[in-house]
């Protein structure tokens, strides 16, 4: 029997909703079958916690007296983009600091603000009649800001390539340090817990979907950049390579540093480790079938990051059960595997979101617009 968002939210309000995590639902399906399970379960919670470089925050400082139209802005020596308005700025998570390089960057500034720390704001400008001040230096905290919200263009990849290195020397990447001659494999997806892998054809995740974002209640604001709806998929619509992504938004003032933290990758730079949880309403049996996906049923490509020409080629296909086993075989060699995504944190988020729904603190939001189901990603033209 089909359910609606309104019916499920009414159950949440009355404390009657059956909510389970994406790992817990697998055993329920095995016990009851998809039809009975779809009638029994109302919501399945999904989650991921890993590095999401395409992230940042919009900040509004308010006007000084006399006022300034900020043109060059630095927060703890990290440059933020101020070509928006007089005292609005956007700080990207991967920007490096002037004085410390990639040991401190935009992700650190964002997390320091959430932690309540004081940040040094420095800005310069060309004076004008309405904005006569040329420079300013002051200290700010999150409480001093009028608005501060995370706005991330590309998060929560729907599947992602695993990485290895065929070269005779180590390579330093955003997937970590890859040892020479296929010395290791790293991967960055929470597998059967991952949000978009539990809704592979975007039936319930779209523009306007309410999500758990770094401890706050946020929203999917748009399809993420490099959204690849036409990526190769299996018979159930699950992509075998990077596919959908999410643009997300949420209030920095409601976030928790347990679920958002800066990361530094040696030889590469700064990233932002971010926790995202998404509840999936079980609207019908097909939706239950989708959330019953297991690591064994999710495949991805192991890609070589060590080629001299910089191009990345596929070494082999692998499923997440194999990756999570700790080792896979490449060209007859047993190679250790390691996740960059934290399964422990992903599980913590899925469980916390489950509890929030059970306690009536988190309601489902039907998307106001669905994502496209066709369309591919273009590459940059070079001479």
Textual characterization of the structure:
The protein is α+β, with helices and mostly antiparallel strands and 383 residues long. It folds into 2 domains: 5-53 and 151-358, no CATH class; 62-145, no CATH class. Helix content is 17%, strand content 34%. It is built from 8 helices and 24 strands. It has helices spanning 5-13, 24-32, 34-40, 106-114, 195-198, 285-291, 320-324, 343-358, and strands at residues 19-21, 43-51, 56-60, 72-75, 78-80, 88-92, 96-97, 101-105, 119-124, 135-140, 147-155, 162-164, 171-173, 176-178, 184-187, 210-213, 216-223, 246-251, 260-265, 269-281, 299-304, 313-319, 327-330, 333-339. The strands form 6 sheets. Strands 1, 2, 3, 6, 11, 16, 17, 18, 19 and 20 form a 10-stranded mixed beta sheet that branches. It has a 4-stranded antiparallel beta sheet with strand order 5-4-9-10. Strand 16 and strand 17 (216-223) form a beta hairpin. Helix 3 (34-40) crosses helix 6. The radius of gyration is 22 Å and the shape is globular.
